[in-house]
Amino acid sequence: MIRPLKLKNLLLPSNIWYAPLAGCSDFPFRRLSARHGKPGLMFTEMCKMDALVKKESSTFRFLDYDPSMHPIGAQLCGSDPKYAGQAAKMVEDLGFDVVDLNCGCPVDKVTKDGSGSALLKTLDRLYAILLTLTQSVSIPVTVKIRVGWDEKHLIHTQMVELAEAAGVSAITIHGRTREQAYRGLSNRDLIEEACKKAKSIHVIGNGDIFDSGSAKDLLDRGCSGVLVARGTMGKPWIHQQIVHELETSTPFLVSTELVRSTLLEHYDEIVSYETPRKALLSLRRVACWYLRDLSGAKPIRDLVNRSQSLEEVRQHLVNFDFNHLYIGQEQNLAMQEQ
Ligand SMILES: Cc1cc2nc3c(=O)[nH]c(=O)nc-3n(C[C@H](O)[C@H](O)[C@H](O)COP(=O)(O)O)c2cc1C
Description:
Elements: E1 5-7, E2 10-12, E3 16-18, H1 27-35, E4 42-48, H2 49-53, H3 57-62, E5 72-77, H4 81-93, E6 98-103, H5 108-111, H6 123-136, E7 141-148, H7 156-165, E8 170-177, H8 188-197, E9 202-206, H9 212-220, E10 225-228, H10 238-248, H11 256-273, H12 276-291, H13 298-306, H14 310-319, H15 329-337
Parallel strand pairs: 3-10, 4-5, 5-6, 6-7, 7-8, 8-9, 9-10
Antiparallel strand pairs: 1-2
Helix pairs in contact: 1-11, 4-6, 7-8, 9-10, 11-12, 11-14, 12-13, 13-14
The chain binds flavin mononucleotide.
Flavin mononucleotide is lined by residues 19-24, 45-46, 75, 102, 104-105, 144, 174, 186, 206-209, 229-231.
């Protein structure tokens, strides 16, 4: 079930991948992911093709990576085939292993110029972009879609054929429509339909994968792999957890001490990457991810949120008694049984 995946000449060690997450899958996040049971493939945040081609300096920051993060994909966002090839070549020259096209972002700011999920309404244009990408680089090209713009316009099976025809190596399918945004559940039946359509392309299932059970369900339905998104936030070890649980059928136990020590590692990464002001804002957000599943964590969340300096945050994380917190009923019982 957990297995290596081949995309063209690239052999990925695992079929459990980490998603592009704007504002989250940044350099510090990816450093942590690489260190805690690295996924088969990880992605940068989305990066605008035109901004990259025009060499806007802020854009290059999205593409910061270090050797520990390989295999790593860069995700491009845009709707103009004119920029696609050049942007992909730049990504390849920067040393990325994979280039991915974003066809899922639902936000108006992105869709208004025809990018992100708006491409699901203009399949001719989308095909032209994919073809340009595959013809411009020798690294594998992947595409990430939603199942359609809305329920009346589902294009998941058509997209599998179209991506295959364009020479794309893998298609990631989030089982929600653009209209749904994040409401309701990701529709796994639709992802399964797409898997049945695929001849040569890998179908990677995405949506609501928060544990090994949900990953297993998508793999059982025929997906070559899965892409974990929100499930990675505050849980850089989730790849390790899914692999362990699927391979041994025993729970991967997360202690409150693991949560604290990993959050402190994340702290160090953020502090060495960002300016102090940005680091403080980033840390408040990141601390919430780590603390959200801990019962009794409100006091430490409040302390972090009220902290006025990075050192103050650090002191609270070091001094707070994490032994009084616990990680949900089930895990707690499993730990007592050990
Ligand atoms: C905060 C946030 C940022 C995201 N940024 C991106 C992005 O840059 N590119 C992309 O293709 N998808 C992005 N997504 C979508 C996720 O990659 C994923 O497809 C979606 O969250 C569904 O998976 P999940 O239910 O496991 O979270 C983002 C999602 C969230 C919540």
